[in-house]
Amino acid sequence: MTAVGTSTSAVGAVTEAATLDGALDLQPAVESRPSGGLRWAVRPNGSPASEADRAAVFADPGFGRHFTDNMATAAWTADRGWHDALIGPLRPFQLSPASAVLHYSQSIFEGLKAYRHADGSVHLFRPEANAARFARSARRLALPELPVEDFLSSLTELVRTEIAWVPGGGETSLYLRPLMFGDEAFLGVRPSRSAQYSVIASPAGSYFTRGPVPVSLWVAEHYSRAAPGGTGAAKTGGNYAASLLPQQEAVANGCDQVVFLDAVEHRWIEELGGMNVFVVRADGTVVTPPLTGAILEGVTRDAILAFAGELGYTPVEQPIALDDLRADVRSGRVLEVFACGTAAVVTPVGRIVQAGLEDLVVGTGSGPVTAAPPVTSAIRTGLLDLQYGRRPDPVGWLRQVA
Ligand SMILES: *Cc1c(COP(=O)(O)O)cnc(C)c1O
Fold first, then answer.
1. C-alpha angle with apex 122: 70 to 169, nearest 5 degrees?
2. Alpha-carbon distances, residue 258 vs 33, 200, 223, 245, 255 (angstroms)
């Protein structure tokens, strides 16, 4: 039995003009928005992990180390659209060495969590926002768009199949990682005419092994994560590839994470390799840089902007110059800095380190014994309470899946 999709997408179909000579013709021949309606055939793994195996994983899940028994997969071709939607056993991909993704990095991904509430029910947090971002990332990488409805149903079906893998208690969750890549075996430079979509799931404890303990940031002076007109706003592996060498430099300098500045003036704070940044001012504002096209539009960032008011703070989107931040921390105008993202939730920043300059100590400082400062703590707790159903959800951000 094969699931049949009703989508008739031809996004990604291109003219024959693109050749090995490098003649680029990136104009889609047909532009159409797929309508959705994939049905997921569910044929789960016949020999899933035992309860004892799962218990062993839950005892020390870490982040992204263990995967559940099943995955979602769907295929796309320019002539058939999306098809073969399946929830089936976790398996390796078979790829031609000529596959587009291995050469020209046509790939995107998402990250969100399924949360178990105290009553045993399981919920996703704003999955529509991830679906919309996945579609935007696909557009930027010239991949086919997966309809929002199909993205959501893939998550729902996979989580329902893997319900025993959703841990409960503490800050645990089932981390969901949707991904898509171009797999056409062709070395010419043009969008792949076939693609694979997949969702894998991984039980998660806390992202940072040391928990919500303040981290130190290394200022990347000679590297950029993203440039104007580039792919900074798309969730694509290439941005991460570009961040790994600076991240190594950070670790070599005794820091936990890199903070990237804008690529033009090297003056404006953008974000970390995989998290957005906020500063907390003494006047009660919580400030994050506006979306310039080089910053990834985090769902966590957006949620904090939306509910900071409820907690008594004033959310502001405003450019933050590193020089000003230094002066404002020293003068007491800025009290706290934190980073945010789905995986790590809200993480306090305790120290900002830059070559040739004195370390900037923020909040309660970084290190194993210091705790998160008050506003960062309040925002972190407020967000977790919402995600775990301990606080009312007036906006309808939670989507119950089981
Ligand atoms: C995913 C990601 C974030 C955080 O986004 P969330 O939706 O909050 O998880 C921030 N920056 C980058 C570069 C990312 O890839």
1. 100
2. 38, 27, 10, 10, 8
Q: Is the CB of 217 under 6 A from ligand 1?
A: no
- Please tell me if the CB atom of residue 296 comes closer than 6 angstroms to any atom of ligand 1: yes
Long-range contacts of 149-152 (CB under 8 A, 24+ apart): 149/36, 149/37, 150/5, 150/7, 150/36, 150/37, 150/38, 150/74, 150/82, 150/85, 151/127, 151/178, 152/127, 152/128, 152/399
Q: State how far the Cα of 296 lies from the Cα of 294, in Å rounded to an integer.
A: 7
Q: Is 304 in the pocket of ligand 1 (CB under 6 A)?
A: no
Taking alpha carbons only, the member of 264, 261, 268, 267 closest to residue 243 is: 261
Paired strand residues for 271:
260
Mutate to test the pocket of ligand 1, among 296, 299, 397 (most ligand atoms within 8 A of CB): 296
More confident residue, 8 or 170: 170
Determine the pLDDT at residue 61: 92
Q: Is the CB of 300 under 6 A from ligand 1?
A: yes
- CB of 349 closer than 6 angstroms to any ligand 1 atom: no
Determine contact, residues 400/123, Cβ cutoff 8 Å.
Answer: yes
What's the sign of the alpha-carbon dihedral 220, 224, 226, 227? positive
pLDDT number for residue 21? 38
Give the confidence band of 168 by pLDDT, cuts at 50, 70, 90.
Answer: very high
Mutate which of 276, 307, 346 for ligand 1 pocket (most atoms within 8 A of beta carbon): 276
What band does 205 get if pLDDT is binned at 50, 70 and 90? confident
Q: Which residue's CA is the closest to the ligand 1 atom numbered 15?
A: 274
Whether 178 is in the pocket of ligand 1, judged by its Cβ within 6 Å, is no
The response to whether residue 342 sits with its C-beta less than 6 Å from ligand 1 reads yes
| 294 has a pLDDT exceeding 60 | yes
Q: What is the pTM of this model?
A: 0.90
- pLDDT, tens only, 236-270: 999 999 999 999 999 999 999 999 999 999 999 99
Q: Of the residues 173, 271, 275, 347, which should be mutated to test ligand 1's pocket, given the most ligand atoms within 8 Å of the CB?
A: 275
DSSP per residue over 321-350, as a string? BHHHHHHHHHHTSEEEEEEEETTTEEEEEE
